[in-house]
Amino acid sequence: MIRFPLLRGLAAAVLCCGAITHGAALAQQAFPSKPIHLVVPFAPGGSSDVLARLLAKEIEPKLGQPVLVENRAGAGGSVAAGHVAKAPADGHTILLVAAGHAGMGALYDKLPFDPVADFAPVIGLTTAPVVVVVNAQSRYKTMQDLVAAARAEPGKLNCAGGGGGATVTNLAFELLKSELKLSITAVPYKGSAPALTALIGGEIDCDSDATASALPFVQAGKLRALAVSTDKRIDLLPDTPTVAETELPGFNVSIWTGLLAPKGTPAPVVDRLYREFNAAMALPQVQEKLKAMASSSMGADSASFGRFLASETERWGGVIRQLGLKP
Questions:
Q1: What pLDDT shows up at residue 165?
Q2: pLDDT, position 25
Q3: Which residues contact 75 (CB under 8 A, 6 or more apart)?
């Protein structure tokens, strides 16, 4: 004999499951319900900013809400990351994260957030090389010239590392200096644009920066590229050797970008963001722009990007602690 309490229990369970499914569907349908803030951790004009604005333009019609690019530069990206970590976990505030995010926890002693645990990974976007550049009028014609000068006069050269702090453009140069035992004074800037402006103006001797940011100035004859950080030369700078070819065999560092949302952002919202950004990345006009920026698609979904971020955090955290780097 079937007991009525059991029937009532089964009915309640079915209704509960239905409510959860219906609630998830409603959450997905309701998103976005207001403008989306895409936070960039660097000053306007750099490669991350260019990428953010390119993608915002493409996904805005699909989402049916404005996608506002918000630049929050400072402290190697931790200002922007901290802002997004504290934002409501509803997908309306997201972070375009650069590779240096992975070293943030090791570099800064008292971050008010965890660079991995306090975020929900959305998508891995791009990878690109770092390039070492000097003023076009500089006496340094090759990477070997720059290294020789640094060894001849320790501490005299003043060089930037893109956005400074935990950015991979900076960490790559610090790792290079350590491996080659060079004493070069690091000059921090809030982003690639101010660092490159200083280099063009003769305020510093060199810069280790995103290829996308430096390339227009190289092509315009204002800067000279000495070496790229990847293990192979790139098509846009075929005559520029790799660091591995010139001074440090085996050296291989890439910049990457991705998107993070605040921890606790509903899975349907994360999935919607992933699908729209992934579709935008595949557009011919976006691919053409990426190629012009010396970047390529990473193609990592939310789960893959989460694993990648964890492994990069371990890698760059180890480098920072090994070198004893400080902000």
A1: 66
A2: 45
A3: 108, 165, 327
pLDDT in tens, 154-177: 999 999 987 666 678 888 999 999
pTM: 0.78
Q: How far apart are the first and last CA of the chain?
A: 73
Inter-CA distances, 31 with 37, 52, 123, 241, 288, Å: 13, 20, 18, 47, 30
**What is the distance between the alpha carbons of residues 260 and 38, in angstroms, rounded to a whole number?**
10
The torsion of the CA quartet 233, 104, 95, 74, rounded to 10 degrees, works out to -90
Please state, in angstroms and rounded to a whole number, the distance separating the CA atoms of residues 322 and 168.
15
CATH code of the domain occupying 33-127+256-323: 3.40.190.150
Q: Which residues pair with 224 in a beta bridge?
A: 134
- Residues 231-241: pLDDT tens digits? 899 999 999 99
For residue 250, give both structure tokens: 């085996």
Domains of the chain, by residue range, sit at 33-127+256-323, 129-246
* CATH tag, 129-246: 3.40.190.10
| CA atoms of 257 and 297, how far apart (whole Å) | 10
**What's the per-residue H, E or C state across the chain?**
CCCHHHHHHHHHHHHHHHHHHHHHHHHHHHCCCCCEEEEECCCCCCHHHHHHHHHHHHHHHHHCCCEEEEECCCHHHHHHHHHHHCCCCCCCEEEEEEHHHHHHHHHCCCCCCCCCCCEEEEEEEEEEEEEEEEECCCCCCCHHHHHHHHHHCCCCCEEECCCCCCCHHHHHHHHHHHHHCCCCEECCCCCHHHHHHHHHCCCCCEEEEEHHHHHHHHHCCCEEEEEECCCCCCCCCCCCCEHHHHCCCCCCCEEEEEEEEECCCCHHHHHHHHHHHHHHHCCHHHHHHHHHCCCEEEEECHHHHHHHHHHHHHHHHHHHHHHCCCC
